[in-house]
Design goal:
The complex is a heterodimer of chains A (78) and B (403). With 78 residues, chain A is of the alpha+beta class. Chain A has two helices and four strands. Chain A has one domain: TusA-like domain (Translation Initiation Factor IF3). The longest helix of chain A is centred in the middle third of the chain and has 12 residues. A two-stranded antiparallel sheet of chain B has the order 1-2. The chains are: A alpha+beta (78), B mainly alpha (403).
């Protein structure tokens, strides 16, 4: 994805609820407008992460699926 | 075949395996299939599978005096739960979501310990989130209420442990992880193909194996279906108790309420009408099905212990089964801890605790005996409506949510 990434969070191998908990903690410590790249392998994250962004007012920029089963999620802090 | 027809088939396939089903769809379907299970023999339960796995393992090793236990393939819930793992595996393969996901070591430890907590919780509380609650409440068993309160307390405690752990022990959830066999984009077509082959093998092999035994054949088929529905809708009872305290999201609580509502209607009809009363125990036996001795203190204590375990592991008894099928290794460790400890807890730990409790603290209570059928259903509906109102209000205000 063509965005400037400010932070990267590795959630590979983690299952629910760990990716959401770690993401929430990370986003809390970021500045407004910064972009987080989250690497995850849990199929549940595909609905969880956009859902959380919508609920909390942060912007979900999209996801990219890599060849090795890893998905990259991009979240912009409000 | 014309292009339009091809498009129609592709659309049908995509509806089932293209994207995740809304969780409430899973809830309604699982509620209905739970009623079908009751019509076949007896309702859905999760913990019986782990007890059977563990007992069979100890029987094979020849320890702990479990040589007289029923063989896994002759235990209804052993068969049901094992097939649930396969059903979820099929669901994941058909939708290209299967992969062996090995988490950091700390997560595997948490899975194992969570499984151990669930093993103690379900044997003390005489039921898990499925048998005691998702089936127990529709069965008009009063014990479902203290159990559910316990699941809530346990979820709250474990969620706050997880928040503490991320601050103080971040190493538990970080470190080396590996993913194998993931379906790679277009090259991932092998997963649905292998999935279809395995499905055919399971159906043919299973029907030959259980040939002539109608109840076992149906339980095997139902296990597959329950696993597939659970995986495709990511139906999660753990989430329904945890999420109000975490993100406040109401999707999972509403989905579980949908399953409870369908189940409540179906179970009440079966019990009230005495359907299946050719059963050796007669009409009363049908009415008392799944009314377990867990009202109230052992239900509350067992539910709390179970609730802690399911949130740390990331899945309840059935949530663990379907995540095992989709290749989450953390949940394999949860299943291992659950299976190893459940037979031990059922034989020694739970009886030791129950023996010190006075009788009136761990009784089976069938609500219609006290309030008639209509009163019992009304009480449960009021509780469900109150929970719905709370969950929706909390989703809006975030008063009880940590995130």
């Amino acid at each position: 994805m063509d965005v400037k990434v400010d932070r990267t969070l590795d959630c590979k191998g983690l299952s629910c609820p760990m990716p959401i908990l770690k993401m929430a903690k990370e986003v809390k410590s970021m500045n407004s407008g910064e972009v987080l790249e989250l690497l995850g392998t849990d199929p549940g994250s595909k609905t969880d992460i956009p859902g959380w962004c919508e609920k909390t007012g942060n912007e979900f920029l999209g996801l990219e699926e890599e060849a090795d089963g890893v998905s990259k999620y991009y979240i912009k802090k409000a | 075949m014309s292009d339009q027809n091809k498009g129609a088939w592709r659309q049908l396939w995509s509806t089932f395996f293209g994207k995740t089903w809304p969780m409430w769809v899973g809830g309604i379907l699982l509620g209905a299939f739970n009623v079908f299970l009751f019509l076949i023999k007896s309702p859905w339960g999760g913990s019986g599978t782990y007890i059977s796995w563990g007992q069979n393992l100890f029987r094979l090793i020849g320890i702990l005096g479990m040589d007289h236990t029923t063989v896994l393939t002759r235990n209804l819930y052993g068969v049901l739960g094992t097939m649930t793992v396969f059903g979820a595996f099929l669901g994941a393969m058909l939708s290209k979501e299967f992969a062996i996901r090995v988490p950091p070591a700390g997560e595997m430890l948490k899975g194992f310990l969570g499984g151990c907590f669930m093993a103690i919780g379900c044997t003390v509380g005489k039921g898990c989130t499925i048998g005691g609650y998702l089936s127990g409440l529709p069965a008009l068993s009063a014990g479902a209420i203290p159990l559910a309160i316990g699941f809530g307390i346990g979820s709250w405690l474990a969620l706050h442990y997880l928040l503490w752990e991320m601050e103080k022990l971040p190493k538990m959830s970080s470190g080396k992880s590996v993913t194998w066999l993931a379906a790679k984009g277009k090259g991932g077509a092998w997963q649905p193909i292998v999935g279809v082959i395995i499905a055919a093998f399971l159906l043919i092999g299973g029907s030959l194996f259980f040939k002539g035994d109608r109840v076992f054949t149906w339980f095997a088929i139902m296990g597959l279906i329950l696993g597939l529905i659970s995986q495709r809708s990511r139906f999660c009872v753990t989430r329904s108790f945890r999420e109000p305290f975490m993100t406040g999201d109401s999707e999972a609580p509403v989905a579980v309420l949908a399953a409870l509502l369908v189940g409540l209607l179906g179970f009440t009809i079966i019990k009230y009408m005495g359907i299946g009363a050719m059963h050796p125990l007669g009409e009363r036996g049908v009415a008392l099905t799944w009314v377990n001795p867990n009202f109230w203190l052992n239900g509350l204590v067992g539910g709390t212990i179970f609730g802690i375990g399911m949130v740390i592991a990331g899945g309840c008894a059935v949530g663990t089964l379907w995540r095992m099928g989709e290749g989450q290794i953390k949940l394999w460790f949860a299943g291992l801890g659950f299976a190893l400890l459940a037979p031990i807890s059922s034989k020694w730990i739970a009886p030791a605790f129950l023996n010190i409790l006075p009788e009136w603290m761990h009784m089976p209570v069938f609500l219609p005996d006290y309030f008639k059928y209509w009163g019992a259903v009304l009480i449960l509906l009021v509780i469900m409506v109150l929970w719905y109102v709370f969950v929706k209000w909390n989703e809006r205000t975030g008063k009880f949510s940590a995130l």
